[in-house]
């Protein structure tokens, strides 16, 4: 009996092991591909990433120092109680460009001086550094632009130039954009994100998302995430991929890209929740005039594809990605 049966049983086992092994190989290959795709923007290893010079390294140059201070304490100069002008919402550039734009994957300024002026599809034109700073003033700080001749704009420019002085022209060092997280297979969920918010964000940003002013009331200890004093819906963080990537690597405050505390899915969900809340409106009708160049997660139509504004806001993004890949009518 035993003798008759052992061979087919052995054969069966070998086959199973073979199938399992090749499945494993396919899975490993897919994982490697995913990692490789992401590493296009995320060079492995901390050494290759750009780290900006800290406050202690600021040169003995009054203009650069003033520029640094304008980025770190924008509101004290340009906010509702600002000492120079009242042209912004009370937030600081540094609330989103962490440590005055020096942190890897912290939305830093490392590639700015090396890459501007450049063509930007959002504005369908060439933008210089002054234009780009004014974009953030009008959208992220929900305020008014500064003339390029002002002492303040000249100082911000000088600071950004100084920060990026060692980056060769035209090159983009690692860690100088917000990290692109892999798309989920489902829509990001504001409902799931609400629970994440209550558990991980609320203690600083408040149950109403309005943040907390500092003791001098000329800036925030914890900046607002939505509501009348936050960034408007024309701002970069209103795109869920930017919000998710920023939060994943930098929040709760104190986290960095080497120690993310949220899972990627959790970061997408909390980003969905924050961006489902009310905030000031920006007239963005002139943005992305070439519809086929709109980012997948730009939440305002019209689009060059059949998907809804809701799907463009929360996902799932993979079907939209496949649509453009197969239509070949979108320039990267
Ligand atoms: C509410 C958040 C927020 C605030 C506040 C903010 N920004 Fe930005 N800023 C962004 C985002 C998001 C981007 C786009 C990042 C991306 O697309 O990778 C950006 C991009 C930039 C860039 C271009 C960076 C690059 O690598 O191309 C510059 C320069 C800039 N901001 C300057 C400023 C200045 C100066 C201030 C203050 C006057 C400011 N920002 C305030 C969110 C903000
Ligand atoms: C320990 C306090 C703390 C916690 C917890 C925290 N944050 Fe923040 N957050 C900050 C501070 C402080 C800043 C501004 C950084 C600066 O100015 O240096 C900030 C900035 C931000 C910004 C950019 C500025 C703005 O107002 O839009 C976003 C977005 C943000 N946090 C989202 C979150 C989310 C989402 C969570 C929960 C996952 C979270 N934060 C948890 C303290 C915190």
TrEMBL record:
Presence of keyword Transmembrane helix? no
- InterPro entries for the chain: Cyt_c-like_dom, Cyt_c-like_dom_sf, Cytochrome_c-type_DH
* Entry superkingdom: Bacteria
UniProt keyword Membrane, yes or no:
no
Which Pfam families does the entry mention? Cytochrom_C, SoxA-TsdA_cyt-c
Q: Which GO terms describe its molecular function?
A: electron transfer activity; heme binding; metal ion binding
Q: Where is the Cytochrome c domain positioned along the sequence?
A: 188-278
**Keywords of the record:** Heme, Iron, Metal-binding
Name this protein carries in UniProt: Cytochrome C
